[in-house]
What does this fold into?
Amino acid sequence: MHRLLITGHKGMLGRELVSQAKKLGHEVIGLDLPECDLADRRNAEHAILEAEPDLILHAAAFAQVDRCETESDLAFRVNATGTQNVCLAAQALNAPLLYVSTDYVFDGTKNEPYDEWDAGSPVSVYGKSKYAGECFVRDLCAKHFIVRTSWLCGHGGANFVETILKLASERDELKVVNDQHGSPTFVNDLAPELVRLLASGAFGTYHITNQGSTTWFDFARKIVELSGSKTRVTPCTTEEFPRPATRPKNSRLSPRLYTNAIGNKMPAWQDGLQKYLSERYGHDMSCPSPVIPTRQNLEYPIVVY
Ligand SMILES: NC(=O)c1ccc[n+]([C@@H]2O[C@H](COP(=O)([O-])OP(=O)(O)OC[C@H]3O[C@@H](n4cnc5c(N)ncnc54)[C@H](OP(=O)(O)O)[C@@H]3O)[C@@H](O)[C@H]2O)c1
It folds into this structure.
């Protein structure tokens, strides 16, 4: 059993991390806004040193990709300096740290899935600020894990599944981008893996996503099909859907080193989606539960008609 500190514990991934860590018998401490601003050095240091964790899972971030373009000072303050502050405290405690990173550290021009050893090449402010966070983790923490993941979906969070379900309940047709490739990842599959990895001692940089890849269009089509909606989903290109932040066209992440280190137990993304929808509809897909309002509807590559 460990004393595990989880930053961003009120967020979509953070909530699932708390629940999984508790299930595994760990003692859990959470840090998040507004009680603790990790970008404030004294605030972060005081809170982390006082909590005295023996493991730290750093999931807090400014993760709204388009907002990061217009609020770049905040993005670097939270994702880079906030991570630096967490690293300094982890190092002072000699506590292993796991930093949750993203496919957006790559530019998406590689023709194959990105390997764990590929050099970062971020093109958006969000990607650059998360990559700067990775650099602090590598430079400051001897015992670290960096886990890049992608396209996160979790209950109660602003995620693509909820966005599509909401739009499908309002519209006859949705156009969704079909030239960005990646792996949807469900937080209830990811969270236990992160906790398992953190306790393993196999430090390093890893890629963990649900297995298999798709496009936003195919993902949307599957969500609509499984929910029983009659809304028509049609494909479009990224050029037809300009957004403030440039997204990588190839977000696929190869988990080779993670598989070698501890074994890849992640289910296929289709299984993750099926489970998510079953839980959401209480196992009765014909009786939809109320749609959860999403904060970031327009963060996703969807055109609404
Ligand atoms: N969502 C994705 O598709 C995705 C994909 C790949 C990687 N990731 C990474 O996965 C992690 C979790 O993402 P998520 O989608 O669960 O994000 P989320 O729901 O936005 O959760 C992040 C949490 O961090 C908190 N936070 C923000 N600034 C903070 C600060 N200065 N001090 C303390 N806490 C702060 C947020 O509080 P507020 O809500 O009050 O701001 C929120 O509770 C992040 O590191 C993200 O970069 C996400």
Observations:
- The chain has two domains: 3-152+183-207, 159-181+214-249+275-304.
- Residues 284-298 have pLDDT under 50 and may be disordered.
- Residues 8, 10-14, 32-33, 36-39, 59-63, 78, 82, 100, 102, 130, 149-152, 157 surround NAP (CB under 6 Å).
- Residues 3-152+183-207 form a domain with the Rossmann fold fold (CATH 3.40.50.720).
